[in-house]
Design brief:
Layout (H helix, E strand, L loop, with lengths): L8 H5 L1 H17 L13 H14 L5 H6 L1 H8 L7 H18 L4 H22 L16 E2 L2 E2 L1
Antiparallel strand pairs: 1-2
């Protein structure tokens, strides 16, 4: 087995299929959670796939989210007006951490790096969600990349 740092996080988690399983497991819990379900009132099954494609790109896999779904700007815009509270963000983190533990390889460093990305990303989502729909976010730049050392 190659040294884990010689692979991308995308490769280390198990690629697209593992990210789909992670997303499926996570959203199954979210939609059943009384605190988080209201945030996802407009949830559709395609959301699970979009999240998996986003994570693949963030973890240095294929750049399909940018190519097919509008990239970083589209992701941020989707969070406008959601009014995510800190309590909801922390619950989101609890459920995602449980999904990471269930679906990703039993590798403490890998899991820690993935959860660190989610902590970073949920803070941004919470901040953006406080702005009204239609707010001009400017150009946020390309989709961020997250690796073994955090934000690349």
């Amino acid at each position: 087995m190659p040294d884990e740092r010689s692979t991308t996080l995308y490769e280390a988690v198990g690629g697209a299929e593992a990210l789909r399983r992670l997303s499926d497991t996570f959203y199954e819990a979210v939609l059943a959670d009384p605190l988080l379900a209201p945030v996802f009132a407009d949830f559709t099954p395609t959301h699970v796939e979009h999240v998996a494609v986003w994570l693949a790109e963030v973890f240095s896999g294929p750049a399909d989210f940018t190519a097919r779904h509008g990239g970083h700007h589209a992701l941020l815009t989707a969070h406008l007006g959601l009014g995510i509270t800190e309590e909801q963000r922390l619950r989101w983190m609890e459920l995602m951490t449980a999904a990471v533990e269930k679906e990703l390889p039993d590798d403490a460093l890998l899991r820690r790096r993935v959860v660190e990305y989610f902590d970073w990303g949920t803070r941004i989502a919470k901040d953006v969600s406080a702005s009204a729909p239609g707010t001009d976010l400017g150009e946020p730049g390309p989709t961020p990349r997250w690796g073994w050392d955090g934000l690349a």
